[in-house]
Amino acid sequence: MLAFFGATAWFTKIPAYRNAELAAHWPPPHSARKGGEKVKNTAGAAPEDLPQGAKPKFPLIIFSHGLGGSRSVYSSVCGEFASYGFVVIAPEHRDGSGARSVVNYGPETSFLWEEVLPTIRKQTPTSPTNPNFWSADGERAKRLGRKPARAATEAIHNSLNSDPVEESSPRRKYIHRRKRALTFTASKKRKYRTVDYLWPKDNPYDTNPTNKIDTDLRTAQINMRKAELTEIYKAIQVLNSGDGEILSQMNLLKKGAAGASSRGLDGVNWEKWQDRIHIDNVTVAGHSFGAASTIEVLRDPEQIFGQVPGSLQGIIYDPWGAAIQQPESQAVKIRTPLLGINSEAFMHWADNFEMVMKVFEEATKNNENCWMMTVKGTVHISQSDFTVVYPRLCALLLKASADPERAIDININASLEFLKRVMPANIAKWNRVDEEGLLDVRVMSWEDENRFERRPTESGIAKTLKAQKGLRSRIQPQLPTILRRRWNRRQKGGMEEEIWMHLKPGEAHSLENGEPLEILKRTKAG
């Protein structure tokens, strides 16, 4: 399988220009769909209330990947947002949740293992939120049924403690755990280390609907993600101040470094970035485990941004409910606009759906601008690049029936419609999305059992959909979707054929009576 993906995707490139300059012109009044391809290079009129020659500022989106993901596997989503005038930051988390991340060392870095391994302390952390939670003390490792070396490995992978151990430490310089496909290397010769996917101990598949989640591991990973986002926001502030050269000098992803672009950051005019980002207007988004991370950021934005931004909103794509933590107090609640877009495969996962609905129940009590919907015929990876690169494979094996490109379009258009409604008016007016009325679709009737027609067997829950009738519809799902979309455009509506709306402002009764959860539970039992 790895050979197949390597052979077919090795030469796949992301359609983007490296180190491209920021657009210096204001957008035209229409999108490319209405005005044609020429609008991409057409300048629009600047707002009258700004000084002559003022350059546009761009709102900020921070996108967090899911388990097994990376900074590049959501290029379709991130690229679409960027084309609509957003500065999109897609970090590659180094918490052991990504497929692999390469950490390069600078020339001044010492490569002795003793400077990488955290201090072995004798202490008992009281909570997973404690930054020393993964400290590798022997007593706690014994209590968890783990060897001290295992606890030390977890500490390294999560990078939650950076104090050096004594030089007399007997720890080996390298750890390589072949059984769990887990590697952690720090080498003088290579001058980099790799952080691979971290499998939970004794429960490697805790993402399976029938398994319990490794709460300790996932909580620590979310905590590290929050710490990474804090540093990212600091870097964005430096970039927006016009001092990007400082970041360029610190950058290690340059020619000759592992996993780096041969161009690095050469040729970037950092002064042109000064005051070009709306750093006080932030959208936090994420997919799957990244959506769970997004929820935690929205609950306590001051921890990440120093203060609550002037405008803050969240978008969660197919959230993994089991990783969502319970709020620590009434003060730590979501108080911002929130959009949730599920895949149909995850909608049929009753326990997960219930947890996500509870998040929206929390959010709607503090902010009315909340929407939750499901895109029909989609699976969990439909919001990544995977279904776009392998449409036939996903249709055949996962029974995804939605046209992959159309599924991305629905996710993006719904997100842009959401942002146009919740962002400040002076920013939202530059959002050139051609609204399809996705947020205006009526809330579905829970008595309508048609939505369960493609519910898979228990073994396929959250992974696949029930196969459609007819081989052609399995291997070529685009044709019926294209015809349906053309019909909807002629009718100026009909989005009910492509999405199910679960919640929107003014219609939170579905949360209050709990009816959808009961129906899902009964369906699960049946």
UniProtKB/TrEMBL annotation:
Note the InterPro entries from the entry.
Answer: AB_hydrolase_fold
Keyword annotations of the record: Hydrolase, Lipid degradation, Lipid metabolism
Write out the ranges of the annotated region (Disordered). 28-50
Top EC class for this record: hydrolase
Q: Say if the entry is tagged with keyword Hydrolase.
A: yes
Pfam families, alphabetized: PAF-AH_p_II
Q: Name one GO biological process term.
A: lipid catabolic process
Which protein is depicted?
1-alkyl-2-acetylglycerophosphocholine esterase
